[in-house]
Amino acid sequence: xxxxxxxxxxxxxxxxxxxxxxxxxxxxxxxxxxxxxxxxxxxxxxxxxxxxxxxxxxxxxxxxxxxxxxxxxxxxxxxxxxxxxxxxxxxxxxxxxxxxxxxxxxxxxxxxxxxxxxxxxxxxxxxxxxxxxxxxxxxxxxxxxxxxxxxxxxxxxxxxxxxxxxxxxxxxxxxxxxxxxx
Amino acid sequence: xxxxxxxxxxxxxxxxxxxxxxxxxxxxxxxxxxxxxxxxxxxxxxxxxxxxxxxxxxxxxxxxxxxxxxxxxxxxxxxxxxxxxxxxxxxxxxxxxxxxxxxxxxxxxxxxxxxxxxxxxxxxxxxxxxxxxxxxxxxxxxxxxxxxxxxxxxxxxxxxxxxxxxx
Lengths: 182, 167
Fold this sequence. Notes:
- By secondary structure, chain A is of the alpha+beta class.
- Chain A contains 5 helices and 7 strands.
- In chain A, strands 1, 2, 3, 4, 5, 6 and 7 form a 7-stranded antiparallel sheet that branches.
- Chain A is globular and about 55 Å long.
- Chain A starts with 11 loop residues before the first strand and ends with a strand.
- In chain A, 35% of the residues are buried.
- The mean pLDDT of chain A is 96.
- Chain B is of the alpha+beta class.
- Chain B has 4 helices and 8 strands; from the N terminus they run αββαααββββββ.
- Chain B has one domain (4-162): Roll (Thiol Ester Dehydrase, Chain A), CATH 3.10.129.10.
- Strand 2 (78-86) of chain A pairs antiparallel with strand 5 of chain B.
């Protein structure tokens, strides 16, 4: 069981999720009651100028609370007291969501975290001659903007099939507070 | 599309008339076992604390607060009207222009949510301001959620922006 004596400023609690699909967003819409069609219907989302459906902002928030629930062993080690988040970047189907919480301060049995939720959006894979090997939804639907490129958010890396182009950005920054029992 | 002067006039009016005002009415949400468990399952949660059978007893995962607050806030805001120039109007003219920009969930001193709970949700518009750079009107709502025993379940601060033409 995690104990307060085991925490140090700078420690990181991390998780990642790569299951954002249309089926999942439909299931979330049904379960949450947030049935705004921009989250489930591409035609409606396109009409709203979004180029395709976007995940519910609060869906990602749920991944932050889940990170702490898992970390606190579902209430055996302590409790989640607060999360405070900003919704900055849209999350798309196919995105990899990385949730990272870094310890900033420890007071008594309370631990204060900085939270950063980043999304990795794959665009395409090209071979070394620039030929397209694979295109992802972001490439097909044009999710990546000129601004993303100007801001240096679009990067490349070698993968077994070739060179992957992807965008990495902070979608949800924030803070969290937990209280340990021991 | 309204012009900038009209937007500014409306924003000034709304800021003066809704800041610090209780959102009229309240919303009741009945918590059903199926809803609570299905919500947890969307996140792949398997811990029996959140997904066991009804007889074994379950509580809501923290993210379930999304379910009851969003549902309630939409309902509360639709009924949040003011009188401008003798006419009744909503605090937003087009809900499609509403953007959810931030959220604080606080569970300090709160009790768990269980199947069978009857939640009562009320709100206050704590702040309102206009960002003249992008003409986005922001509202900050404080939402209090209690159960049938008057015990606090969750306190929420929601920040939402209304885009041009939506106020």
